Amino acid sequence: MINNLSELQKKDLKYVFHPCTQMKDFEENPPLVIKKGDGLYLIDENGNRYMDCISSWWVNLFGHCNERINKVITEQVNTLEHVIFANFAHEPAAELCEELTKVLPNGLNKFLFSDNGSSCIEMALKLSFQYHLQTGNPQKTKFISLENAYHGETIGALGVGDVDIFTETYRPLIKEGIKVRVPYINTELSNDEFRRLEDECIKELKDLIVKKHNEIACMIVEPMVQGAAGIKIYSARFLKAARELTKKYNIHLIDDEIAMGFGRTGKMFACEHAEIEPDMICIAKGLSSGYYPIAILCITTDIFNAFYADYKEGKSFLHSHTYSGNPLGCRIALEVLKIFRKENILKTVNEKGAYLKQKMNDIFKDKPYVKDIRNIGLIGAIELKDNLLPNIRVGKEIYNLALKKGVFVRPIGNSIYFMPPYIITYEEINKMLQVCKESIEELLKI
Ligand SMILES: *Cc1c(COP(=O)(O)O)cnc(C)c1O
C-alpha cells in the first residue's frame, strides 16, 4: 500500500466503493482527488492539471465549470430546485420538450423523464412490452439487440446488453434478449468484402424477424457506434435496414442515443446518419453536458395513445423515479440546446473531428503495434494488437503513463479512445495524441 496518501484519499478509501472498479487496484494506484474543473481540465488537490479526454464518461460537452451553464443553474436553484412531477408541471420541463421536438427526428413528440440512462432503457423496454399488451399482441414479449451492445447495467438493461464483463455474473437474474450480428467497419476489409458482410447481417436480421416477429416487441440499438464495446462502428445501411424491417413487422425500434446523441458523431443524433425515424429515442449523458443526472425517453404519439384511457381500464404506465423531471436538470438541458443553436456546435464537431482523424492517421498509421484506427465525428479510437504484452493490463498501464503526463484517457480493453469535450483546441488534440503515442511506446519499450 502506498503510504503518502492525502487525508482525503485515506478517507475515500476508508468508505467509498467506487463504480466499475476493483477496489484492490487502489493499493497500487490510489484514486486521484479532483478539487476543481476548468474547461477541458481536471485539477487535483496538488494543483496538477489533467486533460479530460473522455469527457468524464462521455457527458461533458462544453467543459467543466462552464460559465453559461453555471449561471442558469444558479438562477434555477434560486427559483425552484425540485417538485414532485406526478402532480405538477413547470416551465423548464415544458420548454425543454418543445425545444427537443425541434431537433429530434420527426414523430417523436411525447417525453418521459428519468434520472439516468439505464432507467431510461428500462422505461423503453417496459413501455414497448406494455404497448403490445394493450394493442392486442400480448405474445410480443421478446427483445432484439445487437452483439456487443451496451445499454446500462440494471437487470433489464443487461438483458439487451452483450458485454460479458458486465453480464456474466448476473445471467441467472437476466431476461436475455435475442442478439444479432452487426457489420463492423474494419480497415482490413475491402469494399466488396464489407458489402458482403453487410448483406449477410441484414439477411440474418430479416430471417429472424420474418420467422419470429409475432413474439418480438422491440429492437434496441446503439446507433452507428457501440461505445462500451470499444468504439465499434457499423454501417448506416444496416441501421436503415433494421428500421425498415421493424416497421414492417410492428416491432418498435428503440434508438439508444445516450452516448452518441448531442453531436458526438457529427450529427445531432447518430440515427440521422441512416436518415431514419425511430419509435423511441433514449437521451441522457450529453443532454445536461455532465452537469446533472437527467435522462429522457422520447416517443411517438402512437405509443402514447396506447396508454391513454379511463383510469379503470388499467392502461397507465406506472413507472416513476423520484427525481423525474427535476427542474435543475431541465433548465441545464435547455441551455445545452441553446448553446448548440447559437454557437453552431455541429460545425465545430465536424471540423475538429476531421482534424482528429487526420492527426490520428499521421501519428498511428503503420505503427507495428496498431491493429485498427477508427473514427466518426469527434470520436477516435486506436485499437492495439492483441497480446502485445501477455499478462499485462495494457489499458491500465497506458492510463497511468498518460496521466503522469497530464492526459486522462481510460482505454477499453486494447482500445485507446478519445471523446473530448467539444471545446478542445487543435493544439490540445495534438498533445492528447502525442502523449498517448509516447505512453504506448514507453510501455512497449520502443
Ligand atoms: C452510459 C450508457 C447507458 C447507461 O446510462 P447510465 O446513465 O450510466 O445508466 C446506456 N446506454 C448507452 C449507450 C450508454 O453509453
TrEMBL record:
**A Gene Ontology BP annotation from the UniProt entry:** biotin biosynthetic process
One annotated GO molecular function is:
pyridoxal phosphate binding
**For pyridoxal 5'-phosphate, which residues are the binding ones?**
117-118, 256, 321-322
Q: What is its main location?
A: cytoplasm
Q: What is its EC number?
A: 2.6.1.62
* Database matches in InterPro entries: Aminotrans_3, Aminotrans_3_PPA_site, BioA, PyrdxlP-dep_Trfase, PyrdxlP-dep_Trfase_major, PyrdxlP-dep_Trfase_small
GO cellular component terms, A-Z = cytoplasm
Q: How would you summarize the oligomeric state and partners of this protein? A: Homodimer.
Protein name stated in the entry: Adenosylmethionine-8-amino-7-oxononanoate aminotransferase
The species is: Fusobacterium animalis 11_3_2
